[in-house]
Design brief:
- Keywords: Repeat.
- This is Nucleolar protein 9.
- Pfam families: PUF_NOP9 (PF22493).
- It comes from Umbelopsis vinacea.
- The chain is mostly helical.
- About 60% of the residues lie in helices and about 0% in strands.
- The protein has 47 helices and no strands.
- Helix 25 packs parallel to helix 31.
- The radius of gyration is 34 Å and the shape is globular.
- The termini are far apart.
């Protein structure tokens, strides 16, 4: 209840007016700040630059703030022109690229010498952003050159900061093209111009000039609500990281309001390709400038200022980025430790074993602060092993049980678990945290449980203690109780909650907990002796119950994790697939079930694939009309199954044989037994061999040949030239593996077919290098490769003999005809 109502008082008109003034905010959506501040009243009788104005003829622009930079007013004609430009940009795309280029060039001609005024205007700045996104590299450089000398004022401006952020985002791609030598020069570029204009700088030089201009004011800019986001984009650019604002989950690049507005009104960015690299090619000068800015923010500031920035809502994300964006080199790690040393009161440089009271108090503040705790999470992630161990021993050892219950500190503890450096550290954490699993579950700190399970899975240690601790925490002690282990974990309920729940609650899929599903998926990555508790509980459930999980976003992932686990028994997978017989067509037509269908096809043997294919054929019409079903028909190659079933079966059998043969190399999990293939070949293939040690290079792309003969029944296990047709998930990996193997065999062919001396010399050198690499390979796999090579040689000799025999027969026939 408000204080006024509790005390029986009412707010007067003056109070209501002041309250409304405080709640006044800027225009909804177009906001780059972390907080909303009221528009300050403007002095009507005085110009912002200090000159007296006529109060009757003065009209302030929309959203004007006298505390920000002011570069003049926009004429009504220019505003009208920009409205027409915006309409043209929002309409369907231009018919040709030349029309678009001509239109953009004309607009830049009209706005020449007005860039600063337009960038600080509310409506025109949004049009400028749209215009920049379709501009060429040359036009971006010209526009950026016009802003030089005013960046500090523009970065802190409410509207101009958005224009600068868009300009830097596009400038990152332009700088990469320059570094690659792919940038297209502008008209008459390179020729020295007369007068005061000079030569247009490159994007690299413009960015470096911008950084030097901002360097003295960097401390104040990172704490400014408008400039902070632009500085973050600048750090991304210098570090060579790709700026992906669409997947900006943490809000590092844009505030929530700015992102919302961008998605609804001004989102015409070029979509990043899913195959795009997360890094960009940048010149070395950008890396050097990043180091300079890092030193400016660490050595150039006092410890008091740095600690203030560490808990500042706006500046804190910039410090996080400085830690994350450092290069993965020794110099980069030294830079990280230097930043950590300044933030944590000399924890890196202090070699004494005595405790520092000031540092301890400051660490406890960061640990429990809603803003500072985020920075502490990044410190644990990026610190060197020695610094991490010092932090763990000094501030977390023997305190984990208490910190796991704290509403803020428990998130830092989760990062401590996930980023454990050694198994000894993890064992100490498990020993201290596992007994409290029941309490964490009771009070809703399930993230702590999941993070510790993930850490054990990543480090491959303490699996037994984790599984035992989970069983005790959920109350599943006896074998009968453990039959419902998966039901308890997926809902994050204890066994007592499960048995006392109603049938409606037990059957509700809405009770599924995301953290519980993640725990089950991680448990299925553990060795077979540790994931048995999950598999046994899953098989103990009625098939009708688990079948409903397939059509739920959470339940389908649990179902899929059991089928895709490399540590699950093959008989168990077959049993699961048998339970789904005659239901595959229904699964294929579901949004979530279609993903599970791909996994079922991936692990099924030839007999089960035939049953699945027949079920899909029986409902082909319905599947072809369904959005998801038609992709399943294509992935399973149902057309081929209907027309040439024998050929389809031969091809699938060949796929299985090749999966078994190269299972460890391709990382595939097929249902056929690998041991049987190894016994047939008479060798033992080593586990997880290194492709580099085996003499395989980066791979030469080569199209595999498909066999057109359907009547041939016998196919060699060592025939590497046949097509490797695997589903979409493993096709790329399989192709790379087969191309590497083909390359080994082609090296000798290249040596034999060299006609000139130079070609023979190059082929000989390649052959020698391949031989040296193959000497390092394990003997067992070399036996397999030699057997394959010998098989190919014998086949080529037989073909050559048959060809020579045919030629002799033809020549004898011609001779007889001639003599006759």
């Amino acid at each position: 209840m408000p204080r006024d109502k509790r005390e029986g008082r009412t707010r007067g008109k003056r109070g209501k007016k002041e309250k409304n003034d405080k709640e006044e905010v800027y225009d909804e959506g177009y906001e780059n700040a972390e907080s909303n501040e009221p528009v300050q009243p403007m002095v009507v009788d005085q110009d912002p630059n200090g000159y007296q104005q006529d109060s009757h003829n003065f009209e302030r622009p929309r959203g004007y703030d006298p505390s920000q930079a002011f570069f003049g007013f926009i004429d009504a004609d220019v505003q009208t022109y920009f409205k027409s430009v915006e309409q043209t940009l929002d309409e369907p795309p231009f018919e040709t690229t030349q029309d678009q280029q001509l239109f953009v060039a004309n607009v830049y001609t009209e706005v020449q010498d007005k860039e600063l005024v337009l960038a600080t205007d509310h409506s025109c700045s949004m049009v400028l952003e749209k215009l920049l996104k379709i501009s060429s590299d040359f036009e971006l450089r010209v526009f950026m050159d016009r802003l030089t000398g005013r960046y500090a004022e523009l970065f802190t401006h409410r509207f101009a900061s958005h224009v600068c952020q868009t300009l830097l985002t596009l400038g990152a791609a332009s700088a990469e093209r320059e570094a690659r030598g792919e940038s297209v020069p502008g008209p008459d570029e390179g020729a020295k111009e007369s007068g005061d204009v000079g030569v247009l700088l490159s994007m690299e030089e413009l960015v470096l000039s911008l950084c030097k201009e901002l360097k003295p004011q960097l401390c104040s800019l990172i704490s400014d609500p408008f400039a902070s986001h632009v500085i973050r984009v600048l750090l991304y650019l210098l570090a060579g990281k790709r700026i992906d604002e669409d997947n900006d989950v943490k809000g590092q690049l844009r505030s929530k309001k700015s992102q919302k507005y961008r998605n609804t009104n001004n989102n015409k960015d070029i979509k990043l390709s899913t195959k795009a690299s997360p890094t960009r090619v940048v010149p070395k000068s950008f890396t050097d400038m990043l180091h300079e800015l890092t030193r400016e923010l660490t050595e150039g500031l006092s410890e008091t200022v740095i600690r203030t920035l560490a808990v500042h809502r706006v500046a804190n994300p910039v410090l996080q980025l400085l830690l994350e964006l450092q290069p993965e080199t020794e110099d980069g790690q030294n830079a990280r430790d230097m930043i950590i040393d300044r933030i944590l009161w000399g924890i890196v440089s202090d070699e004494s074993t005595q405790s520092n009271h000031d540092r301890d108090s400051w660490f406890e503040t960061l640990l429990r602060d809603q803003v500072g705790s985020h920075l502490l999470e990044v410190i644990l992630k990026t610190a060197s092993p020695s610094v991490y161990n010092k932090i763990f021993v000094t501030y977390f050892r023997n305190r984990l049980a208490k910190l796991c219950h704290h509403p803020v500190a428990n998130f830092v503890v989760q990062q401590l678990f996930v980023n454990a450096r050694t198994t000894i550290q993890l064992e100490l954490m498990v020993e201290e945290a596992v007994p409290g699993f029941a309490d964490y579950l009771k009070f809703g700190k399930v993230g702590v449980i999941r993070s510790l399970v993930d850490a054990c899975c990543n480090m491959k240690a303490c699996e037994k203690q984790i599984v035992s601790g989970l069983a005790d925490a959920f109350g599943t002690h006896s074998p009968t109780e453990r039959k419902d282990f998966i039901n308890c974990v997926i809902r994050m309920w204890t066994y007592q909650q499960w048995i006392h729940a109603t049938d409606e609650e037990k059957g509700s899929l809405k009770k599924f907990h995301m953290q519980g599903a993640l725990i089950i998926q991680t448990l299925m990555k553990l060795p077979e002796e540790h994931n048995t508790i999950v598999v046994s509980s899953f098989l103990a459930q009625p098939p009708a119950i688990t079948y409903r999980w397939i059509f739920d976003a959470t339940g389908s992932r649990v179902y899929e994790s059991i089928l895709s686990s490399p540590n699950a028994n093959l008989k168990i997978k077959k049993k699961i697939l048998r339970n789904l017989e005659d239901k595959y067509h229904e699964i294929s037509m579901d949004k979530f079930g279609s993903h599970l269908m791909d996994q079922c096809w991936k692990v099924a043997d030839i007999d089960m694939k035939a049953k699945i294919a027949q079920d899909l054929v029986n409902h082909e019409y319905d599947l072809s009309k369904n959005f998801f079903g038609k992709y399943i028909l294509r992935n399973c190659n149902i057309d081929h199954f209907k027309r040439k079933r024998e050929e389809w079966e031969e091809r699938e059998k060949g796929i299985e044989r090749k999966k078994d043969m190269f299972k460890d190399i391709l990382g595939d999990t097929s249902m056929a037994s690998t041991k049987a293939a190894q016994t047939a070949a008479g060798v033992n293939i080593p586990t997880n061999p290194n492709l580099g040690d085996l003499g395989f290079g980066d791979g030469v792309t080569q199209e595999t040949k498909t066999s057109s003969k359907s009547g041939k029944k016998k196919k060699s296990l060592n025939d590497h030239s046949k097509s490797l047709l695997i589903d979409a998930d493993t096709a790329e990996d399989a192709q790379e593996g087969m191309d590497d193997i083909d390359r080994v065999f082609k090296k000798k062919k290249k040596f034999a077919s060299a006609n000139t001396k130079e070609d023979a010399k190059d082929a000989a050198e390649e052959n020698e290098r391949a031989t040296e690499k193959r000497k390092k390979a394990p003997k067992d796999l070399l036996n397999v490769l030699d057997a394959i090579d010998a098989t190919n040689k014998s086949k080529s000799k037989k073909k050559k003999r048959s060809k020579d025999g045919d030629d002799e027969k033809k020549s004898s026939k011609k001779k007889r005809k001639f003599e006759a």
